[in-house]
């Protein structure tokens, strides 16, 4: 084969290291840049939000979490109504333009009213909604850009952009907040959210020209429209066993996330604020570094060689063993190790794997049911799990070892859900035996 066909020595080297075909390289790099910019913008904004949480009591913060769930429910419903009437070509760019405009609005209001507690609470809730929305829409677009085979090989590489953005983003407020000013960080993030718009148009062009996926139902340059019912995302979710299984998978993930977070927060209470900040910072650094290495060298090969059932069940299975170790040795270092494994595994393996699941469904499901799962189910799981944890610890009096034992059982169910979903994906999104497909 000629160098032209192989894309030259550099392209062959990239293919050997990452399994990216020469015709996929440009689209993959642009997708990487897309999510890198999104995560950089988010992690510029997140420290502003998290700095506010210390001003409120636990009860006030719990109510803000509950408010986030209900605002997420309303936001997804409005989104479903709007995209039922808007053509594909403006849906995704409009989402990021809208969020950029809202953060500019918070900048104007903050400059006018100063340090207002109601504005601060509104910002906390809104950024919490955005924290799931921007990635949900991104992966919706990705699942309509790449076919199933490409998704298995490329989604882990693309997800590395999220980890890179999670490293670069916080450095801006960390090192420059005093010089830039907190409010000006909102403007920087707003500008960043507009940068992916030309990338979106270019990627849609490459979808047919280089990726060979002109027949996929995500053509932003076409005239397609989604189903007219604005609540079809909710009805599709509750009536589709495949989507319900995805929702359960995410809910069980949220349980793992909340239980570890609450236990870490409790154990770190013995340290002063500066030491706590160093420990959390060290966790973030370890997580994102491990996620980058794992995504580059392992995830794509894992999905293509051992299959989706094993890919989706891997991190849940590791969590079973990890929680057993915590139950036997309930100390801070072990819990931190479990947190690093869980988060890095989610960024590098579980999140790309679960996003591959949406390549087996139609465009209406991706654009309307997926936000219901990614946002409403996730935030509802936050509220449900927080109260469940409270019942286990405050009512039943379980300590870390007891919580770990319960969590190990939940992680086993999570692993079983991953195997079930992986097999359904291999059948084309059908949760029953046979060769059926989702409608």
What does this structure look like?
- The chain is mostly helical and 439 residues long.
- The protein has one domain: Up-down Bundle (Growth Hormone, Chain: A), CATH 1.20.1250.
- It is 81% helix and 0% strand.
- It contains 16 helices and no strands.
CATH architectural grouping = Up-down Bundle
Report the CATH C-level class: Mainly Alpha
- What is the CA-based Rg, rounded? 21 Å
What's the count of strands?
0
The CATH homology group name: MFS general substrate transporter like domains
- Along the chain, the helix and strand elements come as HHHHHHHHHHHHHHHH
CATH topology: Growth Hormone, Chain: A
Q: Give the CA-based shape.
A: globular
Tell me the β content.
under 5%
Overall structural domain count: 1
Report helical residue fraction: over 70%
Separation of the first and last Cα atoms: 41 Å
- Low-confidence segments, ≥5 residues, pLDDT <50? 1-5, 218-222, 433-439
């Amino acid at each position: 084969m000629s160098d032209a066909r192989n894309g030259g020595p550099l392209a062959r080297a990239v293919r050997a290291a990452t399994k990216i075909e020469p015709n996929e390289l440009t689209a993959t790099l642009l997708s990487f840049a897309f999510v890198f910019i999104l995560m950089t913008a988010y992690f510029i904004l997140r420290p502003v939000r998290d700095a506010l949480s210390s001003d409120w009591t636990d009860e006030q913060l719990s109510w803000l979490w509950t408010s986030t769930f209900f605002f997420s429910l309303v936001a997804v419903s409005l989104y479903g109504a709007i995209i039922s009437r808007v053509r594909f070509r403006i849906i995704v760019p409009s989402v990021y333009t809208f969020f950029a405009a809202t953060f500019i609005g918070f900048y104007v209001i903050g400059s006018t009213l100063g340090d207002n507690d109601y504005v601060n609470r509104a910002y906390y809730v809104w950024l919490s909604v955005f924290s799931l929305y921007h990635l949900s829409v991104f992966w919706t677009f990705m699942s309509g850009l790449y076919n199933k085979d490409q998704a298995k090989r490329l989604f882990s590489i693309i997800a590395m952009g999220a980890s890179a953005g999670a490293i670069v983003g916080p450095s801006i407020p960390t090192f420059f907040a005093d010089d830039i000013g907190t409010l000006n960080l909102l403007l920087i993030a707003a500008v960043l959210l507009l940068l992916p718009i030309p990338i979106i148009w270019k990627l849609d062009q490459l979808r047919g020209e280089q990726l060979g996926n002109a027949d996929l139902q995500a053509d932003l340059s076409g005239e397609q429209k989604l189903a007219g019912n604005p609540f079809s995302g909710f009805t599709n979710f509750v009536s589709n066993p495949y989507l319900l299984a995805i929702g359960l998978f995410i809910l069980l993930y949220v349980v793992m996330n909340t239980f570890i977070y609450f236990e870490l927060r409790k154990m770190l209470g013995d340290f002063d604020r500066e030491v706590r900040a160093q420990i959390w910072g060290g966790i973030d650094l370890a997580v994102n570094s491990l996620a980058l290495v794992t995504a580059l060298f392992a995830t794509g090969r894992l999905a293509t060689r051992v299959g989706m059932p094993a890919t989706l069940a891997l991190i849940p299975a590791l969590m079973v063993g990890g929680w057993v170790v915590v139950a036997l040795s309930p100390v801070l270092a072990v819990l931190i190790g479990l947190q690093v494994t869980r988060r890095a595994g989610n960024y590098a393996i579980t999140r790309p794997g679960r996003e591959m699941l949406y390549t087996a469904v139609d465009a209406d499901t991706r654009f309307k049911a997926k936000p219901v799962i990614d946002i409403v189910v996730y935030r509802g799981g936050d509220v449900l799990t927080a109260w469940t944890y409270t019942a286990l610890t405050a009512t039943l009096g379980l300590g870390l070892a007891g919580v770990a034992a319960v969590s190990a059982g939940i992680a086993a169910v999570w692993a079983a859900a991953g195997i079930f979903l992986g097999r359904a994906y291999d059948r084309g999104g059908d949760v029953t035996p046979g060769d059926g497909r989702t409608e």
